[in-house]
Records
---
Amino acid sequence: MPLRIIRNDITRVKADAIVNAANSQLRAGGGVCGAIFAAAGEAELSQACRAIGYCPPGQAVITPGFQLPAKFVIHAVGPVWQGGQHGERELLANCYQAALELALAHRLRSIAFPLISTGIYGYPKAEALQVAIRVIGAFLLEHDMTVTLVVYDGASFAISEKLFSSIAAYIDDRYLDEHPDRRRYRQMESFELSESMAEPIDMMMSQVKASRSLDDLVKHPDETFSQMLLRLIDEKGLTDAVVYKRANIDRRHFSKIRGDIQYQAKKATALALAIALELNLDETRDLLARAGYALSRSSKMDIIIEYFLTEGNHNIFEINEALFAFDQPLLGA
Ligand code: APR
């Protein structure tokens, strides 16, 4: 999966490079910086940093990883938060970009980032996360690399409060869990609704849906998941590379899907591809059905995806950011 988000200690992450939230003097500090120096071997890493000397905010430099499982450490200097009116956002974006470009220049295939500036430097976490996802997401639409965003503790991962509460309300309205009280409540609710407007509307909706699916079925009765996917890519005038990058899946995985008419896609892969194709909710249901799946009201993951589809937001990286915040599996490979 090109972009993963995990909870871990970054010094344990196996990647070609891990990124250090560094200071301009490149000295061993506290926070993630202290942990990286300690795990790499403080004397060796300090010596390598002294040889470089200085790195301005918004830039990045590279050293070996010494005792770390990662081969390299990319030291990226984030901005100190001063209220948000001092170019902090741009500097933070620049330092993610600089680290990614350095990894590219060294032909690295994988890189892991902490949430730069969100500790001692005081950058608000939700806003820093948005910057990270935006820069990494844009980079991954152009390049093949595996990027891991490493979150150290639950509290340090927050999506914007507005988005979180809007998704939470959406889930709350739709989620059918197995608790008997909740089911009874839902039954009562649907009973009240069916007495009034809900039934005719539901009937109308199911007729519209049925005719759409019928139409599709008549035109392409025996189409498999893989065939439907490839047809939609052609119809939308997209390239394979655009689709697999937007789906957060890697090239090899996509080649397997392309090469096997009977490919058995996992649900997360089918959903990721529906998002990459910018399908609406009904079209997503059709594509999922070809892989043998349906969107379920007893899956929080499905409801969150439904939320983004109805919002017309097909940015897989933002969707994964939200899935992670709600402890759900991420989309992609
Ligand atoms: N693994 C992953 N993430 C970690 C780890 C770890 N082992 N330890 C801390 N973090 C997280 C923090 O929870 C925070 O969200 O890294 C994020 C960045 O926090 P800091 O390390 O404080 O970095 P930053 O805010 O960029 O401040 C940089 O601190 O250590 C000094 O030398 C460094 O002066 C520089 C300043």
Note: Strands lie at 3-7, 17-22, 60-64, 72-77, 110-113, 146-151.
---
Amino acid sequence: MSAGGRRVAAPRGTRDVLPPESSLRQRVIDVARDAFERYGYRRIVTPTFEETGLFLRGVGESTDVVRKEMYTFEDGGGRSLSLRPEGTAPVVRAFVQHGMHKQPLPVKLWYAAPMFRYEAPQAGRYREHWQVGAEAIGSDDPLLDAEVIALLDGIYRRLGVPGVRLTLGSMGDAESRGPYRERLMEYLERHRGDLDEDARARMRLNPLRLFDAKDPRIAEIMREAPKLLDHLSPAAAAHRERVLEALGRLGIAYEEDPTLVRGFDYYTMTVFEFVSDHLGAQSAVGGGGRYDGLVEGLGGPPTPGIGFGAGIERIALALESAAEPPAEGIDVYLAVPDPALRLDLLPVLERLREGGLRCDSDLRGRSMKAMMRHAASLGARHAVIVGPREHEAGVATIRDMERGEQRQVPLGDLVQELTG
Ligand code: HAM
């Protein structure tokens, strides 16, 4: 490589996750994974890109995600592929492709994966973001809706995400939506003059999409529009009642939001969103809902499903806003002042690491004084010093970095001394 090359920055809307933030992010994944396992979910990994058609059919051609935000490209073979903008359509595609409906239902799957959307970047909104998510496919029991919401609620509580609130809506079933759509269209026709080209395009494809228009003038119009929640079929209303009853039993507080439609066309019945008051405009830390027609829509047998996705970056931002970052640092710094002894002590360093201790040592030829500074900057709790005299006697000096106290122990006892 030539010297003095041009610097390249990460693309706009993407970000490098550096330590210590990367530990916080890992903690989010670890806590979520532990919860998923306790609720009977198993991990699924799907490809980062899919055939574009999957998202057109699965997510819906009327959605912003499909109309404006997909990273779509043609590969060498002329196929149209898209980076995954969300996780549900790919998981359902895999469910259908692998005949998973033959397994005991519901099949419960979880994922932690990056998603790609060409959105206007701002705090908490990125063009690549990560989600932990879960999908439970094969049951329409309203108690499953409550269980899925409780699972996500438990993840936020265990992590200590501050200011979390749950909002609930319902997209109804096909029976509710048909007649409702007509009423909504009538209302929108009366306001046609106030709708811009984008809003009219949404209206043609799916008038419900106007509820998530970002334009404040459209939002104003939609506040007065008839709401699907007031037009639920008896079956959809009964389902909703049962979900609310189960949430009540679980002591999970919620607010109803009749304008909550969420950004994808696959939703039916229960939809929900968790927001944190500790975030700015991008306050949704997770959301999900039922998608009872999606499996069939993607070529499988009629099979209901429900799930959620939760944004790892937003959860981390909310946690950072509230708490001290978790203590970083290592357990042991091995200081070998005589370079000739470093090779001899290599197995000792490995033994410490095998013993479960987080260890580091000098790799830049530092002086003893500089090594102690290095140990302190790495947050080492102990320094283990092995000079020539110690080496000859088969001992090491353990220094407690905080108290400055020192003691000598046989080299062979180091792991026991430091872990005991
Ligand atoms: P979503 O609401 O689009 O749902 O995304 C889920 C979560 O991902 C959001 O609540 C937010 O925390 C985070 N998120 C979304 N977009 C961004 C972004 N540009 N930057 C940072 N974080 C973001 C879904 O994706 C559905 N697949 C969820 C689902 C699963 N529904 C049923 N099953």
Note: The first strand starts at residue 42 and ends at 43.
